[in-house]
Amino acid sequence: MTTLTPQSDASTGDDPTGFTALESEVRSYSRAWPVVFDRAVGATVYAEDGTEYLDFFAGAGSLNYGHNNPILKKVLLDFLADDRMVHTLDMFTTARREFLQTFRTTILEPRGLDHKVVFPGPGGANSVEAALKLARKVTGRESVINFTNAFHGMTLGALSVTGNSMKRGGAGIPLVHATPMPYDDYFNGDVDDFQYFQRMLEDGGSGLNEPAAVIVETVQGEGGINAARAEWLRGLAELCKAHGILLILDDIQMGCGRTGGFFSFEEAGIVPDIICLSKSISGYGMPMALTLVRPELDVWEPGEHNGTFRGFAPAFATASEAIRTYWSDDTLEKEIKAKGLIVESHFNSVVSRHPDHELMAKGRGLARGLQLPDGELAGRVTQYAFEHGLLVETSGPDGEVVKLLPPLTITEDELRRGLAILDEAFDTVLGS
């Protein structure tokens, strides 16, 4: 047996947590928050020494209903106590049937959607890979259009339609068969960036291969909380339809209520051909992903796309309960929008207090961001917040956006307490 001596962590100067001797350098969040967490309830997480932190991160959007939600926890504990099947691949089970029926009657049918459900694997990248593969199978084309600053996952297919150069560089091979186009307002209003895509499609001399699909986020989370206008999304949907291009909507981080409605595209009134869901779909932070496809696109051969952990039944059980509890009416949707306006008001106040720093408030619902001039300033803000009991991350191509994804169930008091910490952080870093 080889004995490993703890190595220094470049981010902390030592190894106070006892993890870095064994864990890979690929770690990221633990560098920004170098404490050992132990417990979590609602919007509060606790370090092993008892220190409390308000959570404006929510598992990167995987915990929309908070940590250890008591309603969902009871369902999970009862499920396990009754010796229900846990690992099921794609076998028929009672938990699977309950989820499919609940999802259809409470989510799909009220929104006029008739999509079929694919269980592609346990995570968001699995959902994206299935969507890309199916779009190419249906159309017989290879090329996919993605957008600047997009993020769709870390597997090779998902990376090919992701914009971040650092993440793309980790692939180690050429990432092909994808063409980036400018996202809404990429040129800050100086150029009508949507017309650029349209011109490329319609010009026989553009060199653009006929695309199988377009993949898009309504709000780019990792890209910097860039929110597309509803009219831009409608124009994109119309352009896809006119050219026989499938529209893939990546709702992995922005779905399940993050922007208000269950799906982030509801406000735009569009119907994507394929929808990717993961993160908060299980309701409890357990691995689960869906790829929703219009019925006429469901041309898979049996087993043509699969995965060992595509049928994690405890996640079906908590997902069903989360949908029943939070989406049987519009109560949560209204609360999300109201809380989002509170954040927007706070961020607008920060912008007005610091006119010399070219700040910008961004986002929709409870996906909010405040863009600073550079990543160094944003990092100092999030570090101050952590030191004062708030977990919040950065996003954007240079980490220049302070990004808020609190649990949707956070109380108004908790939300305002966290925003007060952020106000102090911004004023301290930028100068009162």
Automatic annotation (TrEMBL):
For this protein, the record's InterPro entries field holds: Aminotrans_3, Aminotrans_3_PPA_site, Dat, Ectoine_EctB, PyrdxlP-dep_Trfase, PyrdxlP-dep_Trfase_major, PyrdxlP-dep_Trfase_small
* Pathway of action: Amine and polyamine biosynthesis; ectoine biosynthesis; L-ectoine from L-aspartate 4-semialdehyde: step 1/3
State the top-level EC class: transferase
The record's listing under SUPFAM superfamilies reads: PLP-dependent transferases
* Cofactor field: pyridoxal 5'-phosphate
Instruction: Return one GO MF term.
Output: transaminase activity
Q: Which UniProt keywords apply?
A: Aminotransferase, Pyridoxal phosphate, Transferase
**Transferase among keywords:** yes
Q: What is its EC number?
A: 2.6.1.76
Q: Which family does it belong to?
A: Belongs to the class-III pyridoxal-phosphate-dependent aminotransferase family.
What this protein is called in its record is: Diaminobutyrate--2-oxoglutarate transaminase
- Per the UniProt record, the source organism is Isoptericola halotolerans
